[in-house]
């Protein structure tokens, strides 16, 4: 059964800190072919489209297009702050392997 991805409070808080909604933007999480493992994530601030799934929280939005949605079923979209840097991360139960870069995976 496909369930939509979840977005953590920490990810919504980070979007709020950078003022995404104030600019009319949402965090777009997409999956496209390529990368070292076959698929890669594209994460960027973007305008929502009519066919997007919109996940809302804390006055902010995360959007996923209909093509990417099956690849992100049950995934968790989070924000991670580590010594080496801060970034949005995807915990994806559908990925059978991932690459050291953290943005590429295979299914």
Secondary-structure blueprint:
Layout (H helix, E strand, L loop, with lengths): L5 E2 L1 H9 L8 E8 L5 E8 L6 E5 L2 E5 L11 E7 L2 E7 L5 E2 L5 E3 L1
Parallel strand pairs: 1-6, 2-5
Antiparallel strand pairs: 2-3, 3-9, 4-5, 6-7, 8-9
Description:
There is one protein chain. This protein has 107 residues and is mainly β. The protein has one domain (6-98): Hypothetical Protein Aq_1857, Chain: A (Sandwich), CATH 2.60.300.12. Helices cover 8% and strands 44% of the residues. It contains 1 helix and 9 strands, in the order βαββββββββ. It has one helix at residues 9-17; strands spanning 6-7, 26-33, 39-46, 53-57, 60-64, 76-82, 85-91, 97-98, 104-106. The strands form 2 sheets. The protein has a 6-stranded mixed β-sheet with strand order 4-5-2-3-9-8, covered by helices on one side. Strands 1-6-7 form a 3-stranded mixed β-sheet. A hairpin with a 2-residue loop joins β4 (53-57) and β5.
